[in-house]
Every structure is written in C-alpha cells, then in structure tokens.
C-alpha cells in the first residue's frame, strides 16, 4: 500500500503521522504545495487514446498515477514566490501554479481512498452548508445569520438580544503585529449594541451571527470513518474560555475522554457521510438541560492536542490505522502498539529532525501578514 500526504513544511500533525507510519512499516511520501514552482516539477499527460496520468518530482521524492492507494489531503498551502521575481511575472505565475497543483491532485490518485475527497472538502469548508446538513441529520443548531447586510444583522440582534448574540468569522483568524511581533487572534465574541452602529464595519466583512447557547460544557468530537472520539472541555470554569474554549492560550483547557450518547454519535456519523468526509473534528455544546448543539465541523482540524492532554484518546494510532487500512470501525485493531503515541513522537526527537530536514530540503513556507489556521 502506498500513502501520499499533501501538505506543507513544519506541520507537526503531518510529521507525527509520518513518524507513526514509519513505526508500523507503512510506505508513504509527502508532496508539499509550497515547493511549486521552485523545487516541485510536475506533469499531467493525456490524449485521445490514452488515460490521463500525472507525475511529480521534488528532490529525491518522485510519484506518479497508480503509486498510491490512500491520499491524506492534510492541508493545501500556498505556492511560494521565487526570490527576485518581479510583481508582474509573479501575478501570472502564481495563478498558473495554483491551477497546476489543483489539477495535479485530481490526476495523481483518482481511484485512491481520500481523506478527504477534494469536492467534499471544498463543500465542507463552507459553514452554511455544514449547518444545513447537520440539521438534516437531526442535530440541533442555533439560530444563525450569515450576513453583511446591516439591517438584517440589527434585526437578528433585536430578535435574540435577551438570550444574547455571538459574532464569529467563518475562518479562524490569527495575525502577527508587524511592529512588535505579537500574536493576536479573533475568537468568538458576544455582540453588543454599540458594535452595530457603523454600517461600514458591518458590510465590509461578512460574518456569522448566532443566538447565544447556554453551556454546561463543550465537546470536541474527532470522527474517523465510523469511529468517534469525544473529549469533554469544561469551558465554563474560566472567564476566558466561556465564549470560546480556545481563547486561553496561556493555559489551555484539559480535555477528558467521554462516551457520546449513542443517538448523538449516530447523528455525527450521519453528518460525516452526508458531507462525504472520512475525517473531521466536530464542536458541540452541551446545554445545562443536556441537549447537544452542533456548532461546526472542521474537515481537517487539529486533533493531536487532545491526545497530548488526554492519552486515553489514542488518536495518532487511530489515524495511522485509518490511513493504512483505508477505513476504521469499532472492530478495527489499531496499528502498532502503545509505543506509537503522540507523547512518544515528541520525546523521540523526530519533530526536531523533521523540521531541520524541511528547512534544508524544501521551500520555506511563510504567509506574509495574516495567518489563518483552524
């Protein structure tokens, strides 16, 4: 079995999974989008009497159509501008590089098991279709408005101001302050009446507005094919994390593994099937009355932080099994032994060796200014 991983340098999830695959003896290769155009060379060939084929080479790594049974589309990454290329040339080359790599992905492994399928991934990255699908699968959702229409936003706020209204962006946003280098993030916030005074501020940036849902605690549910690993996050125990459990970077919440009620698990898995996803991280609120309310699914969310703080969730082994077996269910025997863990990966020095190799053999990946991540 051949496994292809699509990603970019210095991604700790990518390297932890590669380390696990090495430990269990699975053949795998990584293709980094940012290596195009400086290091990555790729071709797609087709004709009236031939089946389309694709091939690539980047340093010592080579691959072609037919080499891979499983593809993990970890993350896309942007192509990187060659040093010295003028603006006018890069405007054209960047567009062509993006088109080229999108086409390459489709022809390298058309019959492989994808985590996640390209079309499903693109659909699932849109929050509105996620919510509609969740509702169709029997999951409760909050009243929600996606808008940049000031009048609609004000009417929505007026209708739900007694419960409260929250504001958030479709893409979790982090940025660096150029002058000081300080990192900032915009998390879920509670909307105030004074936030609605400026029409320009409202229509310049479309956003998500939702009725505030009272929380007893929250759940991070990591879904892999037919298996869900649920972790409880007691976000209401701290002021900083009551609106958004990610907000206390200095002291992250400690997850605790729990079992989902069977009906909730079935609805989560039904949502994954409806969206066409083999992997995804679902965020749920559990209300004081015990209702489970769906917020979102991140089709390629971070998951190893859960195992790092809650070793009872063997997520690295489970994901390695998903890749090597092309599926996962409750009867699956997890690949490797207890020594295949995120803690063991961090203790092994493999992360430091992998980043050094990325720096030496691949194009440096740096998105100027704004950095977005999930």
Features:
single chain, 374 residues, alpha+beta, D-amino Acid Aminotransferase, Chain A, domain 1, Dna Ligase, domain 1, five-stranded antiparallel sheet, four-stranded parallel sheet, disordered C terminus
- The helix fraction, in percent, is 25-40%
Q: Compute the separation of the termini in Å.
A: 30 Å
Number of helices: 11
The helix-and-strand class reads: alpha+beta
Overall residue-averaged pLDDT value = 93
Number of β-strand runs: 19
Structure description:
By secondary structure, the protein is an alpha+beta fold. The protein folds into 3 domains: 2-115 and 354-362; 117-141 and 214-299, D-amino Acid Aminotransferase, Chain A, domain 1 (2-Layer Sandwich); 143-212, Dna Ligase, domain 1 (2-Layer Sandwich), CATH 3.30.1490. It has helices at 12-23, 87-108, 118-124, 127-136, 150-160, 199-203, 262-275, 304-309, 315-325, 342-348, 350-361, and strands spanning 2-7, 27-32, 41-47, 50-58, 61-64, 70-73, 113-115, 144-147, 165-168, 173-176, 183-186, 189-190, 207-211, 217-224, 227-233, 256-258, 279-286, 292-298, 370-372. It has a 5-stranded antiparallel β-sheet with strand order 16-15-14-17-18. A 4-stranded parallel β-sheet has the order 2-1-6-7, covered by helices on one side. Helix 1 packs across helix 9 and helix 4 (127-136) packs across helix 7. The longest helix has 22 residues, at 87-108.
